[in-house]
Design a protein that fits this description.
- The complex is a heterodimer of chains A (152) and B (797).
- Helix content of chain A is 32%, strand content 15%.
- Chain A has a five-stranded mixed β-sheet, with helices on one face.
- Chain A starts with a strand and ends with a helix.
- Chain A is an alpha+beta fold.
- Chain B has 18 helices and 33 strands.
- Helices cover 27% and strands 25% of the residues of chain B.
- Chain B folds into three domains: 186 residues, Alpha-Beta Complex (Aldehyde Oxidoreductase, domain 3), CATH 3.90.1170.50; 326 residues, Aldehyde Oxidoreductase, domain 4 (2-Layer Sandwich); 147 residues, Aldehyde Oxidoreductase, domain 4, CATH 3.30.365.10.
- The chains are: A alpha+beta (152), B alpha+beta (797).
């Protein structure tokens, strides 16, 4: 089947199998490998992308379901050379170590700040509670989002 | 030797970035990772690349009667289907493990754990490969499994390892340390002896990136290029050469960006070998990435020690001795990654941070029908188990003596003037100054106030607990005279080359999985040679580009490879000094090093920078007699001893009496890892380890049903802490440099994973004191805590 969607402001049309997951469409078909895959059960959140501005786990969305919608991935966070404050915050506050969960975390945090520009620590923790980071212990991620909030 | 407790005066303050040396510095690896431009193994795309998927056993123990691959071979997009019989023909059906055992690559005779590799498919894409797996028809003759480790040596237990000639039971090895008679004598004359059965359940490191590989075998060149999720690329290359018979110089192992390791990516897994075979068979690059269930059920687990701890003391709280008996579950194959002379890893440090008169451990390890592994999950080679045992049993003693657990520990610490301290099990602790670390943790926590608060709450029926642990680790393996893995000494190489314009490249044998090597090692070299970290490229994770060494695990990067980096920089600096003497026309003795320059003593205006020296080294002018052009050096560092970081952790929990839910309210961690290179990175390492600790203490466990089905086979069943289960960490530090490490650093990667579980369990047990609870085994889930409150605490296995 054919699917057309907008990915990071660019319209793409591809011939795909109906069962293809969005995460594999992004990674294997479009070579946007910044979105990662970490489980099969919607628990880890390394695959989070924004679908029409809302965070979704792209391992449990069919590529076909994204047809006609807008997808934003980590590759679409920065505006050219200018980083999103979320990206800058993660760097400034050591919000990442191995960097594997980081794209998904940053996309969720971007959506959080879009809806709530000045979240409390508890709101930040709640927002990222559907995602797992094995490296940071989360405190520095919370600080990263606060940094982004202050510097937005 | 006198150890010094100091807060090192850094050339930075914590929020200031300076160009050279130690202190907080943003990470060099972050710019690519925050843009989604990291390159992980699954990101590798090669022209014509095929995809490999593995068929795994649904049974824990079964004879493989037949494997029919005909339908799979006919499936669309399939290029090859390979079984154990195929590999047998190639002599590749079995491979050595890191503990001199063997493990099946693909099963030929039997399957010995659920999830064991049986066959693989190579196809055009990952979906086609998975489709074909469904079409492989395997006939199994199901056998009784050995699941309960305590029944493994029963006379009628099914024999698991009938592949080993002459094997008649499931015994894996025996090991002992310390002096049994001396310990018995000490126990006989002690006022108080406390014994406790303690289980450290099987857990899994579960890094966010699963294991995988891309193999690309070039038949014309005879060269194998292998991208893989490995923490030890050089050791893997040598083992592939030995296993596959490929010449070592024709194997290039590349560990690209790695999405967390925690020990899970130390062993060689059958999947890596399958990818290599798949590429050889098809003549194409082949990618294998396991899924999450495969990762949880088949790759390196951790712990699984059933321990009985005994502690002997005087009535006034002087600890005399510790004795322990351990039953270790090693799964179906002994895949433990540890120095070969240390089958129980470094469990021998179970004497902890205390000055004892005697200690003894007796261990029996057995095979069961479970996945192999044994050393993984940031354990510093079984020190996690050792620290848990001693810190739990010390708390049991405190309860028995009705003594404050902090006071009991303070009373028994090895004293600063006793270092280097030889323990009763033969470990030589390099340096330590424990009391200030403990006092700092108590100060940050407000220990006295917490106890007062607890007393008030107890009077109201609220359950609040305060738990302490104090750990000493042994990391930085290790001296080659007695530490090797499959004959490979545990040394690390390092090469440093300074280019004509004064920029440099340093090549490491170790490999980051998130620890920030590209930053830390640039800082180490910068501190020694005065070139800013931004001007130093750190190359690692590619065997064609880096010197030999044993890799990153057991917190060994900074203690071993970090020492190599400092010393290679000093070698370059020594050569730079010779060149500077010619440039300034003075003797070498007339020069002094002021970070970044050689100056004439007493005349600082006469100086040359390292950058000027680099240009001269490559330039046209004369060099001193006997000095070659260029500015570079290499080294292979063999540590003279391990390093012994320590730390004091205090955990505060609240337990809901109605639901038995444990909430970690506060966690205070004061670490002493010797000289601190980048405090930001150190803090990050500690935070991550503390989160592991919450996971293990309260949530994580790989359990099995009686048929050997793994019950923790997905992240819905194997629970890992999220941001909601952990508090905002409170950290502090002391600095007791290692006397034998060139910059005094000791390593910190696993300290918090090792040190935090006993603090959390001690806190929960303390909270449950009104219920008369003295011990409860991890994971302290609400149901297990509920049972403990009702006097029904049972071991998890």
């Amino acid at each position: 089947m054919q699917v057309t969607m907008t990915v990071n402001d660019v319209e793409v049309t591809r011939e795909i199998e109906g069962r293809l997951l969005l995460v594999h469409f992004l990674r294997d078909v479009l070579s946007l490998t910044g979105t990662h895959w970490g489980c099969d059960t919607s628990n880890c959140g390394t695959c989070v992308v924004l679908l029409d501005g809302e965070p979704v786990k792209s391992c449990t969305v069919l590529a076909a379901m994204a047809g006609g919608h807008e997808v934003r991935t980590v590759e679409g966070l920065a505006d050219g050379a200018e980083l999103d404050p979320i990206q800058e915050g993660f760097m400034q506050c050591h919000g990442l170590q191995c960097g594997f969960c980081t794209p998904g975390m940053m996309m969720t945090c971007r959506a959080l700040l879009d809806n709530n520009p000045d979240p409390t620590d508890a709101e930040i923790r709640e927002a990222i509670s559907g995602q797992i980071c094995r490296c940071t212990g989360y405190a520095t991620i919370v600080r990263s989002v606060r940094w982004a909030s202050v510097h937005s | 030797m006198t150890t010094v407790h100091e807060s090192r005066t850094s050339s930075f303050d914590d929020n200031d970035q300076k160009p050279v040396g130690f202190g907080r510095m943003l990470r060099k690896e972050d710019p690519r990772l925050i843009r989604g431009r990291g390159r992980f193994t699954d990101d590798v795309q090669l022209p014509g690349m095929l995809h490999l998927a593995i068929l795994r056993s649904p049974f824990a123990h079964a004879r493989v009667v037949s494997v029919d691959t005909s339908a799979a071979e006919a499936s669309p997009g399939v290029r090859a289907v390979v079984t154990g019989e195929t590999l047998k023909g190639l002599g590749l059906a079995w491979m050595p493990t890191l503990s001199n055992d063997v493990q099946a690559v693909l099963a030929t005779d039997k399957v010995r754990f659920q999830g064991q590799e049986v066959a693989f498919v190579v196809a055009d894409d990952r979906y086609a490969a998975r489709d074909a797996l469904e079409l492989i028809d395997v006939e199994y003759d199901v056998l009784d499994p050995v699941i309960d480790v305590r029944q493994a040596l029963a006379p009628d237990a099914p024999l698991i390892r009938d592949d080993l000639e002459g094997k008649t039971n499931n015994h894996c090895f025996d090991w002992e340390t310390g002096d049994a008679d001396e310990t018995e004598a000490v126990f006989a004359r002690a006022d108080v002896v406390v014994a406790q059965d303690i289980v450290y359940p099987r857990v899994h490191p579960a890094p966010m990136e699963t294991c995988g590989a891309v193999a690309d075998f070039d038949a014309v060149e005879g060269k194998l290029k292998l991208w893989s999720t490995t923490q030890a690329p050089h050791a893997h290359r040598t083992l592939y050469a030995i296993v596959a018979g490929l010449p070592e110089h024709k194997i290039q192992v590349i560990a690209p960006d790695i999405g967390g390791g925690f020990g899970n990516k130390v062993p060689i897994y059958p999947g890596y070998v399958c990818a290599i075979v798949g590429s050889i068979v098809t003549g194409k690059p082949v990618k294998w990435m396991e899924d999450r269930s495969e990762n949880l059920i088949s790759t390196g687990f951790a712990r699984d020690y059933i321990m009985r701890g005994e502690i002997a003391a005087t009535r006034d709280g002087k600890i005399l001795g510790i004795r322990t008996n351990v039953l270790a579950d090693h799964g179906a194959f002994n895949g433990t990654a540890a120095p070969v002379k240390y089958p129980a890893g470094f469990f021998g440090v179970f004497t902890g941070s205390y000055d004892l008169e005697a200690a003894y451990c007796k261990m029996t390890a057995v095979y069961t029908n479970k996945a192999p592994g044994g050393v993984a999950y940031a354990c510093s080679f079984r020190i996690t188990e050792a620290v848990y045992l001693v810190e739990r049993i010390v708390d049991c003693l405190a309860a028995e003596l009705d003594m404050d657990p902090a006071e009991l520990r303070l009373k028994n610490f090895i004293q600063p003037d006793q270092f280097p301290y030889t323990t009763k099990t033969g470990w030589v602790y390099d340096s330590g100054n424990y009391e200030p670390t403990m006092r700092q943790a108590m100060d940050i926590a407000g220990y006295a106030e917490l106890r007062a608060e607890q007393a008030e709450k107890r009077a109201r029926g609220e359950l609040m607990g305060i738990g302490i642990s104090f750990f000493t680790e042994a990391v930085g393996a290790g001296p080659r005279k007695n530490m090797d893995i499959l004959g490979l000494g545990m040394a690390d190489g390092c090469e440093l080359r300074v280019h004509p314009t004064g920029k440099a490249v340093v090549r490491l044998s170790v490999k980051t999985q998130g620890q920030g090597h590209e930053t830390t090692f640039a800082q180490i070299v910068a501190e020694e040679i005065g070139i800013p970290p931004a001007d130093i490229e750190v190359v690692h994770g590619d065997t064609d580009q880096t010197p030999f060494g044993l890799g990153t695990y057991g917190s060994r990067s900074t203690p071993v490879s970090g020492a190599a980096a400092a010393l290679v920089a000093r070698k370059v600096r020594d050569k730079a000094q010779l060149i500077a003497s010619a440039m300034l026309e003075v003797t070498v003795a007339d020069l002094e090093w002021v970070k970044g320059s050689f100056q004439v003593k007493g005349d600082p205006a006469k100086a040359v920078t390292i950058q000027q020296i680099a240009m001269r080294a490559h330039g046209a002018g004369d060099l001193p007699d006997g000095v070659e052009g260029g500015l570079e050096a290499q080294i292979c560092y063999n540590p003279s001893n391990l390093t012994y970081p320590h730390g004091a952790y205090i955990c505060v929990v609240d337990v809901d009496p109605g639901t038995a839910q444990v909430k970690v309210r506060r966690f205070i961690a004061v670490d002493d890892c010797g000289t601190r290179i980048n405090p930001m990175i150190i803090e990050g390492q500690v935070h991550g380890g503390l989160t592991d600790g919450v996971g293990m203490a309260l949530m994580e466990m790989i359990s099995f049903d009686e048929d050997g089905n793994c019950l923790g086979a997905s992240l819905m069943d194997y629970l890992i802490p999220t941001a909601l289960e952990v508090p905002d960490w409170e950290t502090g530090y002391t600095v007791t440099p290692s006397p034998h490490h060139p910059i005094g650093a000791k390593g910190v990667g696993e300290s918090a994973t090792v040190g935090s579980p006993p603090a959390i369990v001690n806190a929960v047990v303390d909270a449950l004191k009104p219920y008369g609870v003295r011990h409860a085994d991890m994971p302290l889930t609400p149901s297990r805590v509920w049972d403990a409150m009702r006097g029904r605490a049972t071991p998890p296995i």
